[in-house]
Amino acid sequence: MRRCIELASKNIGYTYPNPLVGSVIVCDNKIIGEGSHSKYGESHAEVNAINNVKDKRLLKNSTLYVNLEPCNHYGKTPPCTEAIINNNIKKVVIGSQDPNKLVNGSGIEKLRSSGCDVSMGIIDKECDELNKRFFTYHKLKRPFIILKWAESKDGFIGPVKSVKTLKKVNWISGEDAKKLSHKWRSEEHSILVGVQTIIDDDPILTTRFVKGRSPIRFVLDPNSRIPLDSRILSDTVKTKVLSKKVNKLIPSYTKAIEFGDINLIIQSLYKMNIQSIIVEGGTKTINHFLLNNLWDSIRVFKSNVKIGKGIKGPSVNLQEFTKINLQNDILYEFNKLNI
């Protein structure tokens, strides 16, 4: 099962809206086939594992391991339960039950009714952790939410902006922290900032420092203040500006949603099928999430550089956070257990 998790983990960031799944087929205590789901619309892990078995005659005496319940419905691909049954695999070991209403136990029921010996809950906590984004989306009806920022030693996320420094990013954290931040971006379905961050820093919000897909970019801009020459308004990566009404000057980039409550924004993201979001600023935007207890993970880079005067970072007690040293920065991290 840990090999299933290892295989699935290699595809993080590429399978949305599908979960991360790996599968291993064992015969006489030897792995004879393995596979993972690498991209939405392509074959699922169980099918890839079966296809990788050279001698299909061995399948009737084999056990198939998979970290998530096999699907039992037609989507972009046929049901995995059919592939398992049609290949006469009689033993299936499953890590987590799939919370998606299209599955949610029906795959297990189908396999058992067809004569398969099904075992459940094998290192299920590790399997649940792997698909925490998928589980949060289907169980809590909202995206998995990460709050992330970097702050100076004296607690500022940036200096006070002047006309001269407007649209210039003031890097607080070091190179290792920057690369890790971009790796995190590659793992999440989307990224969100407030419009003031766009006005002040003109960020791109891509994964240019690492290899990996860039997340869908969201900007909270209730009153349509985003500058039309903002770099985020590019076709290289999908961008949506969430506003009270569609901006007639950039209609293809804007989506009208209801404001007034952060929960309404979260509901809009859920309806757009967004499974995870990393919120990168600014302080006002992050505080909305903190005050409403709408977060699953908080990640803070603390620099050893002092700014002296500037924009105060979000207020959180870092004493209960784990600490990791990164060059001249300290990464503080805290994760909730919601699922």
Can you walk through the features of this model?
It is a single chain. The protein is an alpha/beta fold and 339 residues long. It is built from ten helices and 16 strands. The chain has helices spanning 2-9, 45-51, 80-86, 106-113, 124-130, 132-140, 175-187, 195-201, 262-271, 283-291, and strands at residues 22-27, 30-36, 63-68, 91-96, 117-119, 144-151, 156-159, 190-194, 216-220, 239-243, 254-256, 276-281, 297-303, 310-312, 322-326, 329-335. It has a nine-stranded mixed β-sheet, with helices on both faces. It has a five-stranded mixed β-sheet with strand order 2-1-3-4-5, sandwiched between helices.
Helix share, percent: 25-40%
- Write down the secondary-structure element order: HEEHEHEHEHHEEHEHEEEHEHEEEE
* Estimated radius of gyration: 23 Å
Number of helices: 10
Structural class per helix/strand content? alpha/beta
Annotation, overall tally of beta strands: 16
* Major sheet summary line: 9 strands, mixed
Shape: elongated
Strand order of the largest sheet: 11-10-9-8-12-6-13-16-15
- Percentage beta strand: 25-35%
